[in-house]
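Why does this matter for the project? Reviewers at the last site visit asked to see concrete outputs rather than summary tables. In response, this paragraph embeds two records directly. Each consists of the residue sequence and, immediately after it, the corresponding structure tokens. Nothing has been edited or filtered.
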Amino acid sequence: MLLNLKPRLGLQLPGRCTQLAISRYASKGGGKVDQEVLEQMEEGFKKLAESKSKSLLKKHLTKEIFEKLKMKTTPSYNSTLLHCISSGMCNHDSGVGLYAPDPEAYKVFADLFDPVIEEYHKCFKKTDKQPATSFGKGADFENLDPDGHFIVSTRVRCGRAVKGFPFNPCLTENDYAELESKICGVVSSLTGEYKGKYMPLTGMDKCVQQQLIEDHYLFKEGDRFLAAAGASRYWPAGRGIFLNKAKNFLVWCNEEDHIRIISMEKGGDLGKVYDRMVGGVEALGKQLQFNRDERLGFLTFCPTNLGTSIRASVHIKLPNLMCEPEEMKKLADKYRLQIRGTSGEHSEAKGGVHDISNQRRMGLTEYEIIKEMHDGIKGLIEAECKARSS
């Protein structure tokens, strides 16, 4: 039986504006890679190899690895190598360029995923194992900026995949509806400070939607990297946002991962924001079963979010350091931090505000990752103060 990649979703591979569909194919025996898909992979690989791309995909998808993996498929969903690498082949300016279409892809295409994971997560080798979940207490971390001179806001989030479902490229329209129904039912039952309202994107008033985006609560469509990976299918069906009354706890439904759990507030009290996220994760985990691998930790669509899947970030103003990009990069590398634009990856810094977060998600417990990020931001603020006085 052949994998059907006929028109439902637009993935534009270099040189060919071909309409592709990442369709779900549930066959326990696995499937075959048809000639059309193989030709698209061959063409995309050739153009990527000839490009000036600095992505981890180009670096680790050698000719040998490509030949070894190009005919493989995952047993339950028949995902191919094309599903994994389509975004990086379409976008040569990708940093990583690799996504997992379903949980099985991490093992079937391990010869590609493992070296990318090792380099991105700083030496998490294929023999390493993600530690057991250990949240600890956010109260251990003091407010990073009690006087409000540097940090505009703090956010901590994590991603979760619901067990029994593939990731975006393999979800059917019915899968999206079923997942949304499950997630909506759970978040709507939350109580106390988490009590709030679920709002589906389907039928949402455009003015309300735009305001939520501008207020940094809601995700938006149009990310070309995710679209090329197959994450925008059937949009906006199955997508939505849950927001508590205080608007400092939210849950995204079927954006990049099945679930994104987010805690946020103004200022630099990282410990308080972290504890709120932990409480939300634990509440959802009592009613939903999450997909966790013994070695890789919590499984996610993008390999950069594996392990704990935690990303702790601050919107911060460091005008003196930002005037010295080389010094800023050295400090970011030293503290294992990632610097992005105000609206996250692939965005610009607005008003001198940058988004700075932990880079590592794997090889450490949740508590250790928050501590590493906390210490890093503290170090940046100390360096900014030193630069001001010199």
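We now turn to the second protein, recorded in exactly the same manner.
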Amino acid sequence: MVFFNSSTYRPFLLSGFPGLEDSHPVISILFCALYLVALMGNIIILVVIRVEQSLHAPMYFFLSMLAATDLGICTATLPTLLQLFWFNVCEIDFDACLTQMFFIHVFSLMESGILLTMAFDRYVAISNPLRYTTILTESTITKIGVGLLLRAVAVILPGPFLIKRLSFCKANVLSHSYCLHPDIIKLSCSDHRINSIYGLIIILITFGADSVLILFSYLKILITVQGIASKEEQFKALNTCVSHICAVLLVYIPMLGVSIIHRFGKHVPPMVHIIMGYVYLLIPPVLNPVVYCVKTQGIRTRILGNLLKLQQRVL
């Protein structure tokens, strides 16, 4: 058996939809439409929050972090997807693949951490509204953002170096049009148990811990809301959490599905792996702006107001 150590920089081959290669240009139109929605939606949220002074509040600062993270995920995955579906260029350099993998996982981990801080934000806003802005000051929010970035980088940084210690055989075809850690280590023909254990530990101490703390935050929110006498005020308090709950479900359900399929779905059809991979990375950036624009009154009002002003100028 011929071995290719990572130092030889043997390129990987990206995959689209096996058997549908002739339809890739048509499929690319769908992907471009999704990416356009994701990019425009998240940019609009960032611009509206930046321009409108009334939206300079903790909830909207965290929302802008989420939008920036979604833009990062789109930026990390779009180049290889376009080179495959538009130009039929399948090869990706080994180091380029590791770099893409690093940024995809860093942004995904940051997204999970931001969703946790947004759950804490909702708890503080409901349980202690009078001290809301004094607890979550701009300085505190900045420190939280920097902390989430450092956590993500520190946790994901060992991944590329652990992969470089592996050897790779002739198999070099990835399951997606981008690079993910589980997908790369599957191609190794040397012992990659350390990499698998590392990946599992990362999931447990980051995504697992974040999801438990998010659930705990909402239990505290429910307990707090039960103490509110007015049913109308209870509904109003819970309604402020709807968009965040949707965002959590949009991130964690696909992530859970991808993790389960990669680790236990050996007999699952390859097409399921491929579709779940795209759902995992595309659905949150596409739908998060839609959810927040529809369910968050401050964002919705400002966007509609600006659209009406624009219409009046045109007419």
